[in-house]
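A reminder before we start the practical. When you read a complex entry, don't treat the lines as separate problems. The point of joint prediction is that each chain is placed relative to the others, so the output describes one connected object in space. Small molecules and nucleic acid strands, if listed, are placed in the same frame. In the example below there are two entries. Take a minute to note the order of the lines before looking further.
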Amino acid sequence: MSGETLPLRLPLPRFGTREGEATALYRELRKPLLRYLMCLGLSSDEAQDVVQDAFVSLQRHLAAGGPQENIRSWLYRVAHNHARNRQTSYDRRFSAPLGEVDTMSEAPTPERVVLEKERFRRLGKAIRLLSERERECLLLRGGGLRYREIGEVLGIPTSTVSDTVERAIKKLAENSNV
Amino acid sequence: MCDFSGRLVAWLDKEVPEDEAVFLERHLQVCVECQTRLVAYQEASGTFEAYCDAEIAGERRRSLPRWIPVMSAGAAAAVALAGLFLMFSRGRVVRPPINSQTADSSRATDPRVGTAHPVVALQTPSSRVSRVERVDRQHTSAPAQHRSAGAATAQVHDVGALPVEPAIEITIPSEAMFPPGAVPEGVSFVADVILGADGSAEGLRLQPRFVTLERRATRP
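Here is the predicted structure of the whole assembly.
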């Protein structure tokens, strides 16, 4: 054995061969996903965990040669299902009255604070009147997903998404008088 | 209600076919009801997004680790204490009578010794690091003898003067500096101030310390 060099082969994981794609998707979708999950009711820590799990699943999916079509809705669907599994916190975001949420972004004047708080109070009330599905559709729409993608995430037809979004926005406008 | 009002959001989201979009846009130019609805829908949609952002911002603030503001406050307090200590110590530099032979040999071996106040480094070269510590109230009555007092005190007696403060401990109760509950029990901060030969501060290092909590006495 002396002087003989054995080839060293480490059992590297098979996934990661399409790292570039996964990284690009991570950069693009991490923040919208976090936003979506937190709006669904997950805490910041829970949302971060779910996003991490979703991207690990994505990497495995890509490494296994899974289809890349509609990868955005695929990722949202995985994250959505992870969030669904955390039933304790899911959907608590809009189930309680709006607490001490800082609604002002910059240079608040007293009048503006009062008006803004009143506007948000009415809107919070209107949001709580929406059904769970309507809220999900609006949140996914806010994340920039097309109706087709929203349908893929939630497992419903595109026409149903269209009707649901239309109905939800109409409800918000009528109930919040914004 | 206008027949087209059910397609306004889809049109806003560019989710209607091209031919239908053209038809709808023509209708919008003449239908006041749809125009009004469109504005209301746009506003509701925008406010919903702002509402979500505000909720998330609030959630992020709530989920900040609680020790971050405490650490910041503690660090600020330690810096203030260090400043006080420096002001205090620079005003009372004592030049005790020294053994010139010891001084010369120490100066030769210790490159850190400055020329302005050789005594300071002579007695305890390691005492360039002086300590300022904030501990909780139950320790305020105890004199600061428990740390690094031994050798330095002996040297003080040898030369018959105050050579340098090897370890100065300033104790300030947390209630005097922070609102109640801001500082968790059992945490204090130590500021190591590195002094130059002329007594000026050359550096500052902060370290959180965890004071051993005493268990409540139980009856036999």
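Discuss with your neighbour: The two ends of chain B are 83 Å apart (CA to CA). What might explain this?
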